[in-house]
Design goal:
By secondary structure, this protein is an all-beta fold. The chain contains no helices and nine strands. The strands form two sheets. A five-stranded mixed beta sheet has the order 2-9-8-4-5, with no helix packed on it. It has a four-stranded antiparallel beta sheet with strand order 1-3-7-6, with no helix packed on it.
Amino acid sequence: MPVGPILKSVSPSQVRAPGTFEVEVHGTGLRPDLQARLSRGGVGIPGVTLERQKFVDSTLFRVTIRLERRVSPGACELGFDDPRGGSVVPVGFAVSR
């Protein structure tokens, strides 16, 4: 049975709000049809916009995130929605001031 996409890390793993940042998401089995998301406890975060995502290859995505001043600091998850219905476990990510 084939294994779905697996996320390993995000670099940098912490950014400061407000601002716009490009992060690299590393993993295996990544595909261009995956859709990036940033959440807390599975819920979207007000003031966060995913500006752009670029599939580089099966091990790397580049994601540009815009954080407004109102985004509260703390732990988040960066993951992907899989249109094929698979589950992609997110990786830890943090927002600071």
